[in-house]
Amino acid sequence: MLEADTLNKDVCLGIDVGSVSINIVLVDRDNEVLFSSYTRTEGQPLPSVRRALADMFDNMGGLNIVAAGATGSGRQLAGLLIGADVVKNEITAHATATVTYHPDVRTIFEIGGQDSKIIVIRNQMVTDFAMNTICAAGTGSFLDHQAERLKVPIQEFGDLALSATSSVRIAGRCTVFAESDMIAKQQYGFSKAEIIRGLCEALVRNYINNLGRGREMLPPFVFQGGVACNKGIAAAFKQEIGQDVIIPRHFTVMGAIGAAILAREQADLTGKPTTYRGKKALATEFNPSSFACNGCPNVCEVVKVTMDGEVVAIWGDKCGKWASSLVPVV
């Protein structure tokens, strides 16, 4: 429950809708997070967004939402649902939150449930970035799968990696190679701790080689996203780059925090009242349908969402071809 002195405060809402989870935060003018939640989409983003919002309404007490922002791969739908004042891409949202809390940051490592990003910051501005949305190697969903396969709770994954006195080299270029190599190393008799440590090191090498290639990575380094809770991955980053890595206090919800801050800045700039819809969002009905995109060998199943006959959001494409623009589908 919220503390008594937070009641009746003006706050900004930020929502980050990804392929694996939905993060919601309420942030005050001092950038303090007064409420945060994490909800898995479980393959049903629409009901999950409503469930996350209902939880927020039940727990926000007397807080007064004066601006709202949305980000993530499902930002268009979320923005329409809540009546967002701003809808921003993940790069902008993550960079905004990180610069707010760590003004001197120059390189951001972000690894979420299904994708990973590197963001280069100079003078508190984004100067370069790269995203990996095609390969799941190193993302939260891949680590969850390996933890389940090894019968190790994901909460213990990082500690077990740090307990290993030595590691074994794992091929981390892709999920298929990594899993096959892990199975082979198990058959050779290496311990789970050694294999997990080797996996963490392999995934970080893959991240640096793919996303960091050709980019000037300078300290201070900030590591965020759900995977930042994995001590093994964090230690592997430190070992690979030879520098300390900062993990923000609210590392799991930095995208949502950035969306909330951007919404507040927009409100301050325009002076216009918020378009936030409040509890009306829970009653909004959308109609989803799907089609197969044949634009590349991935042949993604793309979900098209309509409201009153109008296309309002698109989900499911790995490359962003459809999700980045609301082009009518025929």
Brief rundown of the structure:
This protein is an alpha/beta fold and 330 residues long. The chain is 35% helix and 24% strand. It has helices at residues 45-59, 75-82, 90-101, 140-149, 154-163, 175-187, 192-211, 231-241, 254-270; strands at 10-17, 21-27, 33-40, 64-71, 86-87, 107-111, 116-122, 125-132, 221-224, 245-246, 287-292, 301-307, 310-315.
Word description of this protein:
With 330 residues, the chain is of the alpha/beta class. The chain has nine helices and 13 strands. The chain has helices at residues 45-59, 75-82, 90-101, 140-149, 154-163, 175-187, 192-211, 231-241, 254-270, and strands spanning 10-17, 21-27, 33-40, 64-71, 86-87, 107-111, 116-122, 125-132, 221-224, 245-246, 287-292, 301-307, 310-315. Strands 3-2-1-4-5 form a five-stranded mixed β-sheet, with helices on both faces. A five-stranded mixed β-sheet has the order 8-7-6-9-10, with helices on both faces. A three-stranded antiparallel β-sheet has the order 11-12-13. A hairpin with a 3-residue loop joins strand 1 (10-17) and strand 2 (21-27). It is globular.
Quaternary organisation? single chain
The beta-strand count equals 13
Report the helical percentage.
Answer: 25-40%
| Backbone CA Rg | 20 Å
Low-confidence stretches: none
Q: Which overall shape is indicated by the principal axes computed on the Cα atoms?
A: globular
**Main beta sheet:** 5 strands, mixed
Count of discrete alpha- or pi-helical segments spanning 4 or more residues: 9
Overall average pLDDT: 87
Give the SSE string: EEEHEHEHEEEHHHHEHEHEEE
Q: In percent terms, what proportion of residues is strand?
A: 15-25%
Strand-pairing-aware structural class: alpha/beta
